[in-house]
Amino acid sequence: MWKLAIAKSITQQIGAIRCRTQHYKCLSKLQGFHTTHFRPAVVPYLLADIGEGITECQIMSWAVKPGDHVNQFDAICEVQSDKASVEITSRYEGIIKQLHYNVDDLAAVGSPLVDIEIEDEISPLRADEEALGTLQGTENVSIDGAVEKLVDTIKVSAPTTANTHFATPAVRRLLKESNIEISQVQGTGKDGRVLKEDVHRHIMQLSNQPEQQSDPKLGDETVALSPVQTKMFQSMTGSLSIPHFLYTHRVNFSPLTLLRKRAVDQKMLGSLETTHPEKLTALPIILKAVSEALKRYPIMNSNLAIENISSRPSLVLKSAHNIGVGMDTPSGLLVPVVRNVQNHSVLSLSKELARLSTLAKEGKLSPKDLSGATIVVSNIGSIGGEVVAPVILPPAVAILGIGRSRQVPVFQTNKDGTETITKQEEAILSWSADHRVLDGATVARCAQMVGSLLENPELMSLICH
């Protein structure tokens, strides 16, 4: 029923616009002058295509409400796709008449976000043709086609209310599952944004309070996937067709840790960089070691191109080492890309990782930041776990998982031939490879080269170019 009602409304609107448009054209031809429009005109402002094949976005927050005056390029709302957050700005100056979505609603590309009453003097022919073009899309389609397209994508929502609390879709989902109002949680993120840690802290505080009478209506609940979860679902579903094989090896991290401790010494870095990192983690050194190994084994840095199951597959050997790095964020797992690692130093990699990590936590990564990875590195050891079986992110053919390092006892042979037990920091590197194009020997050799560089980090200064 609601589809029929929307279709009828859109048809009437388009019909009225067409009648006025033809009327203005006739007047222009008969009178020989351009007519202007001095009365306000309400124009629907539609969610434009933001690229990357995105078909819908989640409304994160509104910067306006009905009755507000907006200028051109003023912020209207913030939306989040399955890849990044985007701020939507106004193309018109006028008065906001209606908001079509609530916060957390999913808005389809091509559907109206707001209705704006245009105040400036504007040609009625141009305004109506622009609205009609927006309703019908950029393609040359019929009115009926435009109506059908909009009816299939428009989502009916309740009247919008003001919301000044900011949180990612994953956090809002957690709040909903925990039956907690966002206004009850004190946000510690940027501009008061509520983080996942804030929700967990609030839940712990509630658990320490005296027990309340339980709700007899508690039961299972079906919830929709967030945009980030939806993207992960699609990517991992595509990975099901890849025959993975796993290769793991232990690496002595003691020399690497010693180098890191020396690198954060201001006296050592003062002559190298005007600014130095306060903390140098193992990750940028690992990325550099992986990049050096990829020069020797370029097939590990390739994309598998398969147009269809019957066509002959091909490998695209990538010249740039664009390494995706898995990051745990309030929105969930994101994989921003460090581009051209082969041209970076360890210190510049550390700065780039810090920049991407900040953007990821704030939900500010762009679609470009999240696309184009030729190989992926996942540092799951920063959370916990020693051995991991990472899943390949197509069209890449390999992924590296880094386990948590730990101190272990090892036998050491002295110069006189005697053996002693000593303490050594050790981590396990886990490689998953696409067995359709990579054999075990190639992966093992590449992995051993990475291990040798990490156990002898001074060698990288000799072979890097």
UniProtKB/TrEMBL annotation:
Annotated catalysed reactions: N(6)-[(R)-dihydrolipoyl]-L-lysyl-[protein] + 2-methylpropanoyl-CoA = N(6)-[(R)-S(8)-2-methylpropanoyldihydrolipoyl]-L-lysyl-[protein] + CoA
Question: Where in the numbering of this chain does the Peripheral subunit-binding (PSBD) domain appear?
Answer: 166-203
Among CDD domains, the record links this protein to: lipoyl_domain
Q: Which cofactor does it need?
A: (R)-lipoate
Its subcellular locations are: Mitochondrion matrix
Stretches assigned to the Lipoyl-binding domain: 38-117
Instruction: Check the record and name the InterPro entries matching this protein.
Output: 2-oxoA_DH_lipoyl-BS, 2-oxoacid_DH_actylTfrase, 2-oxoacid_DH_E2_comp, Biotin_lipoyl, CAT-like_dom_sf, E3-bd_dom_sf, PSBD, Single_hybrid_motif
Q: Which GO terms describe its molecular function?
A: acetyltransferase activity; dihydrolipoamide branched chain acyltransferase activity; lipoic acid binding
- The keyword Transferase is assigned to this record: yes
Subcellular location, principal: mitochondrion
EC number per UniProt? 2.3.1.-
GO BP annotations, alphabetical order: cellular respiration
A family per Pfam: E3_binding
UniProt keyword annotations, A-Z? Acyltransferase, Lipoyl, Mitochondrion, Transferase, Transit peptide
> Domain of life, per the record?
Eukaryota
Q: Does the keyword Protein transport apply?
A: no
Looking at the UniProt record for this protein, which Gene Ontology cellular component terms does it annotate, in alphabetical order?
Answer: cytosol; mitochondrial matrix
Enzyme class label = transferase
Q: Which family does it belong to?
A: Belongs to the 2-oxoacid dehydrogenase family.
Q: What is this protein called?
A: Dihydrolipoamide acetyltransferase component of pyruvate dehydrogenase complex
Tell me the organism: Hypocrea virens (strain Gv29-8 / FGSC 10586)
